[in-house]
Amino acid sequence: MSKHSTDADVAFIKALAEILNTNDLTELSVKRDYAEDDSLDVRVVKQATVVTMAAPQMMAAPQMQHAAPTAATAVAEDPALHPGALTSPMVGTAYGAAEPGATPFVTIGATVTEGQTVLIIEAMKTMNHIPAPRAGTVKRILFEDGSPVEYGAPLMIIE
Q1: Is the pTM of this model over 0.70?
Q2: 95 and 146 in one domain?
């Protein structure tokens, strides 16, 4: 911490906070040297607002028979277990097109080649193109355009 406590330091910190806001940054750290053994370390952090929404509760219909689950029913219930599942490699927001109103990268029934961009995940203001892991046909699209996705969440089924 600086041995100085001046109006210039206060103005400096206010300027850093303004830079943080105008450039959509979340954190900024600066060291200001005054002399060999006198400096000011400043770290300005903007708290992000986290919004959580509860998923709608679905009531299961009563079942008359209780059969033991098989591998096929497990895959039908959890798309992440499907051998053709494309899962999210990161946390972010999934988009099916390059921009709003543009033609989607893929639709159900579309044939894709390995490496072809099938969606975009925006993470930290960066658009990450997600390629098809294999060639095949898009059987299911499991995300809504503009919806948040978690790491490992199934995004689509390509067979």
Answers
A1: no
A2: yes
Q: What is the mean pLDDT of residues 106-114?
A: 91
pLDDT of res. 120: 92
Residue 66 lies in a domain: no
Residues 152 and 82 in one domain: yes
pLDDT at 74: 46
Q: How far, in Å, CA of 74 to CA of 79, rounded? A: 9
CB atoms within 10 A of CB 119: 24
For 109: left if phi > 0, alpha if psi spans -120 to 50, otherwise beta; the answer is left
pLDDT digits 0-9 by tens, 80-91: 777 788 888 999
For the chain, report the end-to-end CA distance as a whole number of angstroms: 60
Q: What is the 3-state secondary structure (H, E, C) of 80-147?
A: HHCCCEEECCCCEEEECECCCCCCECCCCCCEECCCCEEEEEEECCEEEEEECCCCEEEEEECCCCCE
Output phi, psi for 7, to 5 deg: -65, -30
